[in-house]
Amino acid sequence: MTIKIVTDTGSDIPPDLLAAYDIHQVPLILRFGDHEVLDSEATRAELEKRLAAGLPCDTSGPPVGAYDEAFAPLVAAGHQVLCVTLTGAHSVTYNSAWAAAQSYPGQVEVVDGRSVSLGYGLQAIEAAQLAAAGADLTTIAVALREMQSRITIRFFLESLDQVKRGGRLNALIPVMSRLGQTLNIRAILMIDEEGRITMDGPARGRKGAIRRLTQDLLETAPVETVIVGHGHSPDEAAALADKLAASLKVPRDETIVFEVGAVLLAHAGKGVLAAGTVRKRRNEQEQEDE
Question: How would you classify residue 246: left for phi > 0, otherwise alpha for psi between -120 and 50, otherwise beta?
């Protein structure tokens, strides 16, 4: 019995990797005022046009039925399913997937990715690799939860406009607003071990924010994976990837540089820059030190 991997469109897995690992995606929902559209159907041009015009855009997780539609044909075809979701700390996505999985006892395992964007997209890729190697559902789920402890994500926003409209970080907005009004300060954000977006610290200006983000990630060495995501700054992202890959001794051609998807863009805005690492397992570090 083979295991198929399901995640959602907020995972920002590049199309070539989705195809290579046969990962299935359930679309999140974008709301433009009273108008709803599936993330998989929305064009980036439409979203960017609305963001530029200052129009409201929010997101919501897939309903239970959307996950059932993803799970049912896979189980009917004789597969088991491992589903990795957007962090349950900021979305109902995990709850919807878990509820749908109750109709398939022993056939569907749902893991809260406790991260955003490719932070849990990497977990879906890891799950696919483990499944291909013959691991069972329980083994994969345990491995992903261990992997979460080794993932570090840092990012910052160029503007608070979108995050204010979306309302997902209301608890942080007062602090971020005060920082932004003081000497062009940026707030570096992080994902904590519970999957919550929290403050990491301040940095002066965009260049200073990139330096702070870089330093934070260099401190996670030794690492096995480096990722860099951007809203609309590919050259800046490539330069950051060059720096991180060289400093952390990760092959540049294995470093993933990606354009963030509509879900993160809707909340963070076009100026967002994000990066992350996956630390090596302790036994791998010890073997290299011998």
Answer: alpha
The per-residue pLDDT for range 183-217, each reduced to its tens digit, is 677 888 999 999 999 888 888 899 999 999 999 99
In the chain, the amino acid numbered 277 is T
Count of CB atoms within 10 A of residue 93's CB? 29
Contact 44, 9 (CB under 8 A): no
Tokens 């239970």 label which residue? 64
Domain limits of the chain?
A: 3-27+62-148, 151-289
Sequence letter at residue 229 = G
Query: Please, which residues have CB within 8 angstroms of residue 241's CB and are 6 or more apart in sequence?
Result: 226, 228, 252, 255, 257, 275
Q: Is the per-residue pLDDT at 162 higher than 60?
A: no
The one-letter amino acid at 120: Y
Average of per-residue pLDDT across 280-290: 68
Preceding amide of 62 cis, omega within 30: no
Distance CA 262, CA 25 (A): 14
Alpha-carbon distance 278 to 8, whole Å?
A: 21
Domains 3-27+62-148 and 151-289 share a fold: no
Residue spans of alpha helices (H) in the chain: 15-21, 44-52, 64-76, 93-101, 118-132, 137-148, 161-166, 173-180, 205-218, 234-248, 262-268, 282-289
pLDDT at 36 exceeding the cut of 80: yes
CATH number for the domain whose boundaries are 3-27+62-148: 3.40.50.10170
User: Which residues, in sequence order, are CB contacts of 251 under 8 Å at separation 6+?
Assistant: 245
CATH of domain 151-289: 3.30.1180.10
* Per-residue pLDDT at 285: 62
